[in-house]
Amino acid sequence: MKKMKTITGLSALLGMASSATAALTSGLVTYYDFEDLNNDASASGPNATIVGTDVAVGQTGGAVGNAATFAGTTNDRISTSVGFGSGNTLGESFTVAAWYKLDTDATSAASRFFVFEAENNFDLSYGLRNLDAGLADGQTYAGSTPNNLFTDVHTAGTWQHVLITYTANAGTTTVETYINGSALDSITATTSTISSTGIHIGNARSSSGTRAFDGMIDEFAAWNRVLDSSEISQVYQNGVNGQAVTAIPEPSVTTLIGLGGLSLILRRRR
Question: At 47, which CATH number?
Answer without folding.
Answer: 2.60.120.200
